[in-house]
Amino acid sequence: MGATVRVAVSVNGEPREAEVEARTLLVHWLRDGLGLTGTHVGCDTSNCGACTVHLNGEAVKSCTVLAAQVDGAEVTTIEGLGTGDDLHPLQEAFWQEHGLQCGYCTPGMIMAAADLLERNPDPDEQQVRHALEGNLCRCTGYHNIVKAVLAAARASTEGRDASPPQPARPEAAEDVAKGVGA
Amino acid sequence: MSAVEERTNGNGYVGQAMRRREDPRFITGRGIYVDDIARPGTLHMAVVRSPEAHARVVSIDTSAALERADIVGVFTGEDLDIDGPLPMAWVPPGVEVNTPEHWPLARGKVGYVGQAVAVVVGTDKYSVVDAAEDVIVEYDPLPVVVDMEKALEDGAPLVHEEFGSNRSHEWTLAGGDVEQGFAEADVVIEQRIVNHRTAGAAIEPRGAIAEWHADRATLYSATQIPHILRLQLAVMLGIAEDRIRVIAPDVGGAFGTKLNVYGEEALVMWLARKLNRPVRWTETRSENMATTIHGRDQIDYVKLGAKRDGTLTAIHTRVLQDCGAYFQLLTPYIPCFTAFVMSGPYRIPNVKTDITGVFTNKFATDATRGAGRPEATHLIEVMMDQLAVELDMDRLELRRKNFIPKEDFPAEVPIGVIYDSGDYHGTLDKLLGHVDLDEFRREQAELREKGIHRGIGFSTYVEICGLAPSRAVGPSALGLQAAFYESAVVRVHPSGAVTVFSGASPHGQGLDTSLAQITADRIGAAPEQVEVVHGDTSSGPWGWGTYGSRSLSVGGEAVARAALKVQDKAKRICASMWEAAPEDIELSGDKFQVRGSPDKSMTLAEVAGAAYIPPEELSTDIEPGLEETSFYDPENFVWPFGAHACIVDVDVETGKVNVVRYVAVDDCGKAINPMLIDGQVHGGITHGLAQALFEQVVYDDEGQLVTGSFVDYALPTASDVPSYETDRQETPSPVNSLGVKGVGEAGTIASSPTVVNAVIDALRPFGVDYIDMPLTPMRVWQAIHEGGPARTEQGKDLGEHGQGAAGSGPAAPSEGGGA
Questions:
Q1: pLDDT in the model for residue A2
Q2: Residue A166's closest chain B neighbor by CA?
Q3: How many structural domains does chain A have?
Q4: Residues of chain A with C-beta less than 8 angstroms from the C-beta of B510
Q5: Going edge to edge, which strands form the sheet with B294-306?
Q6: What are the helix and strand counts (H, E) for chain B?
């Protein structure tokens, strides 16, 4: 191990401190050091966005940030966005609209989308697509991801959370069959 | 089969667009993928890989690496004392296949860039990467051959000298008499079609962790085939199969790339045993691009004949398959799938496919989403459009004229397979209900006046999936050294809770949800009561895994059958307790009752209670417990089909293609969960659309991988693709009681020709009738401005996205090429 640095960070609202090797990437510290494995590594070149977290409220790719750089900052990961009983509207919407398949890109996708909705609470389809250009998904073709972000925006701007979880939603078949662009 | 169908209970969970039970963990970051698993005392493995495409390994100096802190060991091919090389599972009767030995670590020679030469093991994940840099390997470079057509020329460098040729194998599949068919034709057209090399590019790279507890090993791997992997590792490593447990945890997409046995999986197993500590390896994206299987990479010389009235008489394709330097699990088998559906949904009496496998100094191709079938659909659908122009006939009319009519099903086609069910006119008619062609033509003409070049493309496809009837593809038939039934256990616990074990190994498709729906309807449970378990060789019976769009039509059917056995036993229990005949017991909603007498009934939980703690009135003839197993081997493949349309605008100044609309009507039989079907179609379309427009794996003339990361490989982003319009038709499959077919690959199989035909339609006024994929701006621009088909030399025209836009072939000798 090379030279180390002491970092003190607020992660998901909790103070965390550690001595890390100076070259440690934030994503590796979150995953290996803090056990927050919801943040994923997909590419090593900042293209895929699976490692997206919020740093002082803004989306960053944590594979391109050193842990040493975030000393004193606030970091939010997918684990801090919402939990099983209290989902963020985006989490709820991704579930409702089938915005994920294998789930690997999903945390990064949700964190990037949350950043968009923070800046632009009422985006149109093209704005959503543009905002998610830094996050790659191989499973969904983006169709239902875009639909989910638009649904979450609607739910949030209407001043309430998306509808609560339901075991079944037969009408979704029709919605999906019609397609967003129909 | 309809009798089976009637025995479901009527709660009707099948057919509902239920939200996925998988999702709560994924949306909250609680999924567990291989790299999320931590075992105490774990060592990290880094791989030293060849920078040479073809070379002798002269020496390997590991001393500097070993001197580094945190390093436990460095191992080379000489150290790796295992029983066998990586497996290749195709031994076709009567066909000679030259199969080179492919070892997890190179033995004296490397054949592709990225080939593993040594491994470094240590206690820190960063340190092992540093140390891998310090392993000094001396190479003696050999001549490199990259282009599969050049590899077949006399005097080409040999990838494997021992074979005396770069041909791996030749095989012909035929039906009817193509010579006769072409003699009867009034029109014969020919085209050389390059179906270029692509990457599967699952967002989760591969990864594996092995650990030993005394004489037992556990391997966690991002795999689609835990049971096959266990068996193959047992053979390679000389370990009894029962001593190995393979676990596929959450797998972050695969698309066929994790349907394989990779060297790194064997290496972590071997190292963990040798070092007596857990060993882990996580693939980097660069490693993934270089050494996780690629797909496609065929050159298809196609010849299609027809009568003047459009009646098809013959099709012949000479398929050159670029295998790469070594085979992976199924490499040389893949073009067989091309042969099986090359005639598409059409009645073509004479068909012939001549396959030649070719070795080059590249990594292996193998099964990625569609596996040989996208190539087939692409070639026939591109040719159908060309034929329509040649005959001056409407291209949809030409298709309709040759469709196998729905009353002809099940339909045996000349290649010797039987399409199970179909209504090809139905899906095309439904598609045209969404796309007003007359309106489109008016719009197209108006836009052309304004200099906007809009085109529409179609494809009508059929695919073969639901792998597979074991006797049709097994050792004595097609020659796969495997069988392809699927297993299921339905276990009702004493409380009435239910666990379903499936031998399939889904990795994002949502099968947990659909299998729960299928089970619930058959045993009077709610889906929420049903847990679905898969991907662990220590729980549930042997299974063949998830690929080839088989998990519902084979795996789901196995679950349905096991659930029906549970239903039967539940009825016997009720009958015994009520002194009634079992045939008089019915399942109605969530109650078992005497037919027509709802006053006396039991829920599943009550039946389970009686099954596990037998009351006095229950006959001792009935074994305790409520658990059943099914092994289901299908009698036929299943044959999904559909019709797709795409509308594009081509900017003739820049060559850029903009997809304006994409409409898909698919028929994958009965829908278990329509929401999941649409999700598969969206992703599938995107995969094929991206091959048509963006993606290509490019090697340069020296065998260096140009597209070695996501910076260079043009995976589409959300801005590159449109929203899709999807619709469905449901023609049940007669093969299984569920009536289902597969849908995981359908979108990919249908979409590349749909997009290409749309671009060609837009460019017909410029005299463009063919362009090799990917249709990058540069290639489209060249086609428009230089006239005729644009083909350029490999790796020489890196266009937009930093993306290679080259065909795999050399500069085209002439229009069409010879078949």
A1: 82
A2: B19
A3: 2
A4: 98, 101
A5: B167-175, B351-359, B312-324, B294-306, B187-199
A6: 21, 28
Instruction: Decide which of A80, A109, A143 is a domain's last residue.
Output: A80
Full-prediction pTM beyond 0.90? yes
Total residues belonging to chain A: 182
Phi-psi region of B163 (alpha: psi -120 to 50; beta: other; left: phi over 0): alpha
pLDDT digits (tens, 9 = 90+) for A16-66: 999 999 999 999 999 999 999 999 999 999 999 999 999 999 999 999 999
Cβ–Cβ under 8 Å, residues B683 and A139: yes
Average pLDDT, integer, range B400-421: 97
What is the amino acid identity at position B135?
A: V
- For B24, the token pair is 């709560």
Q: Please choose, from the candidates B352, B354, B340, B350, the residue with its C-alpha nearest in 3D space to the C-alpha of residue B314.
A: B350
From A31, A96, A106, residue closest to B26, measured CB to CB: A106
Residues of A in contact with B526 (CB under 8 A): 167
Q: B788 pLDDT band (50/70/90 cuts)?
A: low
How big is the A-B interface in CB pairs under 8 Å? 247
Would you call B295 an interface residue with chain A, using a CB distance cutoff of 8 Å? no
Cα B386 from chain centroid (whole Å): 29
Q: Note whether A167 contacts B510, CB cutoff 8 Å.
A: no
Q: Read off the pLDDT of each residue in B241-266 and give the average, rounded to a whole number.
A: 98
Q: Is B305 helix (H, G, I), strand (E, B) or coil?
A: strand
- Distance from C-alpha of B79 to C-alpha of B281, rounded to nearest angstrom: 19
CA A182 – CA B726 distance, rounded (Å): 9
In CATH, B2-31+485-632 is 3.90.199.10? no
Class of domain B374-465+637-802: alpha beta
Q: Are residues A114 and A49 in the same domain?
A: no
What pLDDT was estimated at residue A85? 85
Interchain proximity B13–A168, CB inside 8 Å: yes
Residue of A nearest to B13 (CA): A168
Boundary of a domain, candidates A18, A53, A80: A80
Contact A102 B203 (CB under 8 A): yes
ipTM: 0.95
Quick check: A167 and B252 CB within 8 A?
no
Q: Do B711 and A45 touch (CB under 8 A)?
A: yes
SS (H, E, C) B621-677: CCCCCCEEEEEECCCCCECCEEEEEEEEEECCCCCCEEEEEEEEEEECECCCCHHHH
pLDDT band at B596 (very low <50, low <70, confident <90, very high): confident
Say what the pLDDT of residue B741 is.
Answer: 98
Chain B: closest CA distance from residue A168 (Å): 5
pLDDT digits (tens, 9 = 90+) for B414-465: 999 999 999 999 999 999 999 999 999 999 999 999 999 999 999 999 999 9
Name the token pair of A26.
Answer: 């934030």
